[in-house]
Sequence to fold (319 residues):
Amino acid sequence: MNSRERMLAIAVGAVLALFGLKWGFDYVSEMFEARDNTIADRTAKVAKMESTIREGAAAEKRIDQWEQRSLPTNVQVGPAKYQYWLTDLVNKHLDAPTVERGTVTRPGAGERTLNKEKPLFEKYGFHIKAESDLKMTKLVEFLYDFYAANHLQKIRNLGIIPDNNKLSITIDIEAMMLTSAERKEDLASAKLKSLALGDLAAYQKVIGNRDLFELYKAPPPRGGERPAAAPFDVAKYTKVTGIKSVNGEPEMDINVRPTGQQFRGLKEGSDFTVGGTTYKVVQIGSFDAVLMVDGKRKQIHLGDMLQDAVSIPETETGL
Fold:
């Protein structure tokens, strides 16, 4: 083998070695990439499972809280006791009350527990009619005690209608019984110490002190004097209704809407008075005119109100 052949053999060997190195590098890289993908996939699955566990724990905590607030599980006793409690509360705070029991709602087949015959819950509807004062003091007291009782209940609809010196009140309430609750015949006794804004006085201040249904009373004048009424601006409602040519001579029409007064066929040099102010027609163009008012030249267009007239310098015609 001569030197040329040896050089060729070395070059071929080097190329093969490079290909071998590249193949080995790619193979190892793919192994690391596959491992990284596996780790990332398993990490994501672990994170998802941990999230599911956290959500389940939070749901379990909420259900436990709901069970503590639930109506008694005895369907014969629970709704009746709740209606007695609700009636006492309404009688305590509102006037001329009536409390009626409404419909009972149960979950569908797909919402039942593992025991096919046992529903997850029952909902009981109640309807209240009563009266309150215009400042809603009694209504706020009722609502505060209602929510502070912390039963598993909510107000689905609240109607308030002013009626002379009182408010006519209608309230639709829904209370729930969870079949998994431990109490069978007694209502929940743990009340809230306060609501989100604080005690009853905080809610009376926010709601009752606003006098939403009181008749409007104008504030007293400052210094014991009645403020002077603002003058009525007639020019604000006086409109240029026409600009035309009659026998080759331009004319314009003005309509004073508040009084129904009409100025028709005003020519250049004509005067007219609106709201105690005198206007002089200086020049009439095709679609606008120049008026002199209080010593100032003002331009006004067809369809504009007098108050829309714009001051122009003496050197400009504006037309």
Summary: The chain has three domains: 30-66, 78-210, 234-311. The radius of gyration is 43 Å. The helical segments are 3-69, 78-93, 137-148, 200-206. The chain is about 30% helix and 30% strand.
